[in-house]
Amino acid sequence: MARPDRLEAGSPYPLGATFDGTGINFAVFSAHAEKIELCLFDPAGRREVARYVLPEWTDEVWHGYLPDALPGLVYGYRAYGPYAPDQGHRFNPNKLLLDPYAKKLVGSLKWTDALHGYRVRSSRSDLSFDRRDSAPAMPKAVVTHDSFDWSGDVRPNTPWSETVIYEAHVRGLSKLMEEVDPRERGTFAGLANGAVIEHLQRLGITAIELLPIHAYVSERFLQEKGLSNYWGYNTLSFFTPEPRYFAGDSHDELRLAVRRLHAAGIEVILDVVYNHTAEGSEQGATLSWRGLDNATYYRLVDGQPRHLVNDTGTGNTLNMSKARVIQMVADSLRYWVTSFGIDGFRFDLGTILGRTDEGFKPGAAFFDVLRQDPVLQRVKLISEPWDIGPGGYQLGNHPPGFAEWNDRYRDTVRRYWRGDSAMRGDLAARLAGSGDIFDRRARRPWASVNFLTSHDGNTLADLTSYEQRHNEANLEDNRDGHSENYARNWGHEGPTDDKAVLVMRARLRRSMLVTLLGSHGTPMLLGGDEFARTQGGNNNAYCQDNEISWFDWRHARSPEGEALTRFTRRLIDIRRRYPMLCSHRYFYGDEVAPDLPDIDWWDERGMRLAQEDWDNSEGRALIMRLAQRVEDRFEIVALMLNSSPEPLVYNLPPPSAVRRLLVDSAYPELDEHEIKDSYYLMQGAAAIVVWESPAE
Prior knowledge:
This protein folds into three domains: 127 residues, Immunoglobulin-like (Sandwich); 323 residues, Alpha-Beta Barrel (TIM Barrel), CATH 3.20.20; 106 residues, Golgi alpha-mannosidase II (Immunoglobulin-like, Sandwich). It is of the alpha+beta class. It is 21% helix and 23% strand.
């Protein structure tokens, strides 16, 4: 095909490269560029074959139209403008730039000094200017034309109050699963495998939350150590699925995985990173946003625009006070929902998304955009409500419509089961949905995402096996990762053959799972905790793309792994069968019958807790009783906890005509059965759930 000498004017909307059936429109934002060139490459992305100046600039969007061009075209940009770091500008046309709206990539990033806009070894540091062409080291964008039949797809649309989340990594989930074809292990095809979906479906979870699948790069310092960024929190493209997660070459592989999960009743939530990019600090590489408009895309230090604000700990922070930056993020989110069928998002360091020049605000523009968007207001939105910036801890302060990771829940439950004193009061608040934190502006208990463990930290097995971090494999002298995990090894650090220690560890895991699934709020289970997956004590496995992080399905099939999986499945089923455990409203002690409040607190004596009992720092026993009317009768579900290592006789509170034990963490194989006596012997470090029908 003969190419024209110049581009036609085209349109400033939509941003990105858009095929309209007869050609491709290119549109890219830059408020401060003086000229932008479109560079075309051969299909492999190795050789530049043409270069065009984008002819028009409308509303700060540079645009042009290439007639007769087809999907599959490979391209990048070069931006001209001032290289003036002291003014916040870092234009360098020698650097090939990835389109921020790129939807597919060809080639991979190769770390070299030529990727930097300045001469890395210059005495003037980033004030110097590098004239080397970075194109040979850069991945390029590929024009796509999405076409997928979603007509038969039915989104589960699980109500928040019924949601149970399972956090997992696409690669780690199926990498060691023998039922998956070796060519598909660790890919989206592996995620779609029947064995994977059957495990999730039988477990009873309603949503899988995937660690980042946006295209990302591994930091240079990791590659030089022979490691990689396994978690993927270093985004290169907000619109592109990570190429390494495909078994084939079609993005439909991901769409098919989502569709099959939907057919199994499972929603798909993405962990997304819109707080920073892979470009690093002002001394980082020039890959995309920095070269297109550094002063707009990033927050700059007030009065020192050469330097980037580092509220993320990664070197840069996206400027969510800028309309075009908010647009990019909203467009990205909408694309994942409409093109890939995604059901929700978990926002990494979500506080940054609501940070303005005056600090964090629940009414920040980004939150308002999502809450009014006809597509995005209908999906699940979860925030990690903290960052390292000023005023960075904002648990409970996000606007309605958002759920939030509740680290207060995590730490309180861990400390209670570790045996810490003075925990009963705070534990009660966490069990009841953390209304002290979230009950405002019509928010509901589901706003609290309750978790014991997550990708960031120990697994449940390690939490009960290691008191110290063991991150030697990260090659940072074991200095990285959390230093305080509220963990306990119960007599031996790491693996042991001591049966007493093993029995205690196993019971504690079950007790903590009973607590998690018996609490008001949205439970999140770390993938693999259902069969006691271990990372060998590594509580910061972000750079371990190996057996440390991958799911060991052999252990899942061991007697111990299968037993814990059955127990977890049973707990999720109990939660589903007894809606009081996943209430859509807060309980505050309102009477549902005389002397029968909707929530009540008792101890092992069969007595309601008085103020002096709450103040008793050595109190270890706690009963949460939930009551409601069901048709023509009343029902009670009681969560009974004993963090003491010694057995306790629990005198069961009156009045009840019938009591049925639903589960006991000390006796996991015990079937549901009626309790005849007015007392129950609770083993040490145990948790039980009891159903009651009060006497009329």
